[in-house]
Amino acid sequence: FPSHDIRGLGVELITDRSIRDRYKVFEIGLRQTLLELSKLRNATLVFALDVPELGIDNGCSGASKVLNLGFVEIGDLVSVGDPQLCFVSRKEYDERTAAYRKLVRKVVSEFPMVLLFDPADVFCDQKVCKGYDSEFGFLYWDHDHLSEAGSRLYAEGLVRFLMLQQR
User: Fold this and answer.
1) Fewest CB atoms less than 10 Å from the CB: which of 132, 138, 154, 162?
2) Which helix (H) or strand (E) holds 96?
3) Which residues sit opposite 66 in a β-bridge?
């Protein structure tokens, strides 16, 4: 909805440019979006939290991508890694995303008709958030974008979540 404008890593609230705190802008935008969507009839609303990011330092991939600029090739910051080392600690993930997750849970709790899907339930256990799964393979293209395999794992987790909500 047009109440906010995202520019790179920053956001700007068009209706009140004096608000500079990006979490406050996000909160206002999220609340307004959920308010508008909650007016829909015969709709199931699902808010999905962000997928856990591996982070560049802990990233890995089945095949690195290379950008060829003609005169130079630039490789991914994410390198081919040992599948057993392809993870970020759950503690690091939880600490890094605590403010975001708390804010989303607070706003979504104001809209009881909105289901909250947490992909961390699919990608993480108590110790790690995995970037490799023995059944699916490498789950990310880079530090925070899912591969086809990761997208399939995500989809299966979302379907399981929705099936449990129908009971």
Assistant:
1) 162
2) helix 90-109
3) 75
76: which 2 tokens? Answer: 């991914």
Side-chain-facing half-sphere of 159: CA atoms under 13 Å:
6
pTM for the model stands at: 0.78
- Taking alpha carbons only, the member of 59, 135, 117, 123 closest to residue 90 is 123
CB 5 within 8 A of CB 22: no
Task: Take residue 86 and report the two structure tokens written for it.
Answer: 């392809």
pLDDT digits (tens, 9 = 90+) for 35-52: 999 999 989 999 999 999
Taken in order 128, 130, 131, 132, is the CA torsion positive or negative?
A: positive
Ramachandran category for residue 154: left, alpha or beta (phi over 0 → left; psi -120 to 50 → alpha): alpha
The tokens for 79 are: 């390198």
Quick check: helix, strand or coil at residue 87?
strand
Q: Crossing angle, helix 22-37 and helix 90-109, to 10 degrees?
A: 50
Residue in 80, 54, 53 with CA at minimum distance from that of residue 66 = 80
C-alpha span between 35 and 106 (Å, rounded): 14
